[in-house]
Amino acid sequence: MPDIATINGVTEDNVAAYNGIAAANVASKCGSTWVHADPGGSWNYLVIAGAGGGGGNIGGGGGAGGCRQSWNNETSGGGASSETGLVMQTGTVYTITVGAGGVGSNGNSLSHHGQNGTASSITGSDITNVTTDAGGGGGTYNGAPSGYDGGSGGGSGAKDSGAALGGNGTANEGYGGGLGGVYWAGSGGGSAGIGVAANNGQGGVDHGTGGNGIISSINGTSYNWAGGGGGNSYENWGGDGGLGGGGGSGSENSGAPGAAGANGINAGAAGSGKVGGVGGVNTGSGGGGGAYGSYPPSGAAGGAGGSGVVILRVPTSLYSGTSSGSPTITTNGSDTILMFTGDGSYTG
After folding, report:
1. Shortest CA distance to 225 belongs to which of 306, 139, 303, 131?
2. The domain containing residue 10 runs over which residues?
3. Rg (CA), the chain
4. How many domains does the chain have?
5. For residue range 282-317, what is the model confidence (pLDDT) as tens digits?
6. Does residue 13 lie in a domain region?
7. Of 122, 293, 310, 327, which has the fewest CB atoms closer than 10 Å, so is most exposed?
8. Is there a single domain that holds both residue 200 and residue 58?
9. Residues 24 and 53 in one domain
């Protein structure tokens, strides 16, 4: 590698900084270009996709958005170990994508399934991209009973004969949805971000509760994230949403609707009458399933899935101060935390 003796007439040994980079942080020089040293340290992350919407008419709960995290050895989605943090380079722009939640079933058709959410990601030219899969939509009674696959699978709706299957989850991101019960039975609950898979519908009257979300303290407070939506029951109370903001399911007859999952950074909604509650905004938690809406079906809609989130935790000594998309910026200890609730970017 050829050396250079001077920069703009200043002897290289006397150069304190170049383009704002301290000389001690310049690793090498070639021709007229100085190469910045690896800044060192690890940028930790929590990346959660948008969750699935709940099914209608004895519908299954929506599956949580797929979840990956690297902070503090806390367990990632689907029971996976905490991941390795990112090393971001000075001047590189990293693109942040935050997934939307899926639409719930409209409750007016046996073939109208809860819809999947959309993916979230951190991408850049010099890292292995971190992407999470959208949560799966919940199934609807008989016409489209099976839950959709996703980061966490959607719960299945009830079925006249034989139990419909919940959707599959993505390995190292989430779990599968629960099984629906047979004929007028409670539907499967939405899938979990962590822990056991969502509870199944049981016995003709019971509901399926949503699976509980992972625990992360990356923003300085311990919350659950990415809980599953509650599944519905025909003749009994509705299923509760999973911890982290999962929506509760609706209820028919005298039973109470399901409650929203607790301990999310943003609350989901309980079921209301026959209608399933929405998953918490920016929690990646699934929407609740709708109750029985008579025949032909009417009004027993599933709740929408919660949108996803991307959180970066950066050593303050390495924080560039350059971002787009209006993330919420806070500090905790020696770190700066950027919480993206919509698309944006961070420049290393």
Report:
1. 306
2. 6-36
3. 23
4. 2
5. 999 999 998 887 776 777 899 999 999 999 999 999
6. yes
7. 327
8. yes
9. no
Please state the three-class secondary structure of the chain as a single string.
CCCCCEECCEEHHHCCEECCEEHHHEEEEECCEEEECCCCCCEEEEEECCCCCCCCCCCCCCCCCCEEECHHHCCCHHHCCCCCCECCCCCCEEEEECCCCCCCCCCCCCCCCCCCCCCEEEECCCCCCEEECCCCCCCECCCECCCCCCCCCCCCCCECCCCCCCCCCCCCCCCCCCCCCECCCCCCCCCCCCCCCCCCCCCCCCCCCCCCCEEECCCCCCEEECCCCCCCECCCCCCCCCCCCCCCCCECCCCCCCCCCCCCCCCCCCCECCECCCCCCCCCCCCCCCCCCCCCCCCCCCCCCCCCEEEEEEEHHHCCCEEECCCEEEEECCEEEEEECCCEEEEC
Measured over the CA atoms of residue 260, residue 199, residue 164 and residue 283, the dihedral's sign is positive
279 and 153, same domain (yes or no)? yes
> What would the pLDDT profile of 176-225 be if each residue is shown by its tens digit?
988 776 655 556 555 555 444 444 544 344 567 888 999 999 999 999 99
Same domain, 23 and 59: no
Q: Provide CB contacts within 8 A for 347, sequence distance 6+.
A: 91, 92, 93, 94, 320, 322, 323
On whether the CB atoms of residues 179 and 203 are closer than 8 A, the answer is: no
